[in-house]
Target: Peptidase M23
Amino acid sequence: MLRGLGLALLPGPAVLARAATAPDAWPQALQVPGGVARLQLGPAPERPVVHAGDVPVLVLGDSIAWMALVGIPLSAPVGQAHVTVQAAAGAPGRRIAYRVAPKQYREQRLTVAPRTVDLAPEDLARHERERAHQQQIMATFSTPLPDELQMRQPVPGPRSSSFGLRRVFNGQARNPHSGMDIAAATGTPIVAPLPGRVIDVGDYFFNGGTVWLDHGGGLLTMYCHLSRVDCQVGDRLRTGDAFCKVGATGRVTGPHLHWGVMLNRTMVDPALFLPA
Ligand SMILES: [Zn+2]
Model:
């Protein structure tokens, strides 16, 4: 990852920035809502502890150059944001600021079954229960931390709509699209983009058949609208292992994979983790 940085160089910020942008090791940085900030933390004998609010942040690198990878929410205001850095757990914190630049996402208008927009009371109650469960899943922060970050596209096919679209269902504005849609036929196998562990399998009101994978350090991926799930919670997957199949379950207009990538409990643009 950060190999080849000679100690004799006494790396200044410019040197660190260059070494840490090795394209084979890091997601692309894009400091916009829904993007990822790569914050240089400099040298330290121990891995610093970083939080965005009270949510732990993935820190990678080595004693020569640590780096925080911060997921920026789609709802983040444009302007200054910050994380808190501690030399170790319990140590006093310091703030590192970064700027969130504006990004205008396109609007998408969709027509879906009315019952999936104007929820009946029992559907609303079901969705509230499912949301509480998903929030527990999203809080997963495990070790070991990931030792690779560049992902394999989990299913081949065209990206039928992109991350961040402002969505209007049957004329009503809803949350922006927080994943990548990949068009593929029902039954197409989906493979793990990185080594990971299955942490949730379910059938949810909006997302349909769903699997969550944990890649360590708060890096999670989510697969929705599945026709079939071929894994169980606790299974360990290697990159390229097939574990579920494309479908059209939940709130959809046709078969596709909805793929989500999460860092520090924040859905970020999966394209940043794929080779350019
Ligand atoms: Zn989607």
